[in-house]
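Researcher: Go.
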Amino acid sequence: MYGAILGDIIGAPYEFDRDVDGVSKTKNFTFFKGDAFFTDDSVMTLAVADALLNVDKNADEKTFCQAVTNSMQA
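Model: Structure:
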């Protein structure tokens, strides 16, 4: 969870930056730039985690999907 969310925050300022060929190939970038922020990816990751933690371990697929939907909408 930490890695997914930190990666989202660190990468957010670069999400739409691309080189001419459409791929950014540099490994030289600044961690936590001033415009770093969490995105919808973090929010949805936390919503899935919330559903996993709060649904019964024996829940069927339909129940789990509804729990994920409810968490995402909340």
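Model: Residues 40-54 form the longest helix (15 residues).
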